[in-house]
Design a protein that fits this description.
Order of helices and strands: EHEHEHHEEEEHHEEHHEHHH
Shape: globular
Number of domains: 1
CATH class: Alpha Beta
Radius of gyration: 18 Å
Number of helices: 11
Number of strands: 10
Largest sheet: 10 strands, mixed
Oligomer: single chain
Strand content: 15-25%
CATH architecture: 3-Layer(aba) Sandwich
Structural class: alpha/beta
Length: 324
């Protein structure tokens, strides 16, 4: 596959393992070298099990199994801290640790190790990166998928770039491309937040080598046009969004699934965006207080939605992966 191609495949709870292997064989393995160190950047948004928020446990299990079966030995999962919690806590609280132990894969938390001039962790040097995002809505980026997951490689104070988020995302694409991305499209998260939205079962896998082309196809599936997604609109304006994209897999442009995701700016998001444009944003005590309030609100939302989160059709993936 070239960098202007995106592979899209339907999946299901009972065929997920096989489908991940097929997607990797077609889109990833021809260019990934099992002899090289391989780092897997998961999407770790919440230190609670919240379907659609993080890379799913069932997807990570299938991905690590496929890589081990194809003789990838030097593997590590990487993730950085958020202001609300460290990556190590998220790994333990979400059950990821059991999966990592199952395949003898370590977690590397890159918050404290050395970084380069772009603020990227130097552990990326000489390694091949597998980018594993999820379908999300996002209050600033509109969609949070292939490019936004790379944003998580920056230090935990990365929200300082929120006012120029699209520009920073395009910088990351320039600095890191080509990078292999495989999208966990089993369950997405509808709404304007990666920690407060509503799960949507999608039954999809996507893969490719250009995060922008992945974002383009994901935006169509979620129901957004290029002009509605800031990073795609800017890429189009700067003439770096490929004008001709190839869709591979089991769908054509006409048969591509279409879900009407809802983008809203909640009162919480509007308030935060307003405050980020005031001098308060540069006061450490204010930022600490904002982090605490945001964390409390996320947890309140989690407990309020708990019955919904664990009763929807997406839970079939959990039941099958656990052997029920």
């Amino acid at each position: 596959m070239d960098e202007n191609s995106v592979y899209v495949q339907r999946t299901s709870p009972r065929t997920l393992i096989q489908d991940i292997g097929e997607t990797l064989s077609i889109a990833g393995f021809p260019r990934l070298n099992p002899q090289h160190r391989t780092l897997i950047k998961i999407n770790g948004n919440f230190d609670k099990i919240y379907p659609g928020s993080n890379t799913s446990r069932w997807f990570l299990d299938g991905l690590l199994r496929a890589l081990r079966e194809h003789s990838f030995r030097d593997l590590a999962v990487v993730e950085g801290d958020l202001p609300e919690f460290p990556a190590t806590r998220m790994i333990r609280a979400t059950g990821f640790q059991q999966i990592l132990d199952k395949y003898d894969v370590p977690l590397i938390s890159y918050e404290n190790p050395e970084r380069d001039v772009h603020e990227l962790p130097t552990i990326l040097r000489g390694a091949q990166l597998i980018n594993v995002p999820v379908f999300h809505g996002h209050g600033i980026a509109v969609i949070s998928c292939a490019t936004k997951n790379l944003f998580g490689l920056l230090p935990k104070d990365r929200r300082k770039y929120h006012r120029v988020l699209s520009e920073k995302l395009l910088d990351l694409v320039r600095w890191m491309s080509p990078v292999f991305t495989i999208v966990d499209g089993t369950v997405g998260l509808d709404g304007e937040s990666t920690r407060r939205g509503n799960p949507r079962r999608l039954d999809l896998l996507l893969a490719g080598w250009n995060p922008l082309t992945l974002n383009f196809v994901v935006s169509l599936i979620m129901g957004y046009s290029t002009d509605q997604v800031p990073v795609l609109a800017l890429a189009k304006e700067q003439d770096i969004l490929p004008s001709s994209l190839n869709l591979e897999g089991e769908f054509t442009w006409e048969s591509l699934p279409h879900y009407d995701f809802t983008f809203i700016h909640s009162g919480i998001r509007r308030t935060a965006m307003t405050l980020e444009n005031t001098p308060l944003f540069y006061i450490p005590v204010f930022l600490w207080l904002e982090d605490q309030l945001r964390r409390l609100y996320h947890h309140y939302n989690y407990w309020r939605k708990r019955d919904l989160l664990f009763s929807g059709p997406w839970m079939e993936y959990e039941r099958v992966s656990s052997g029920e």
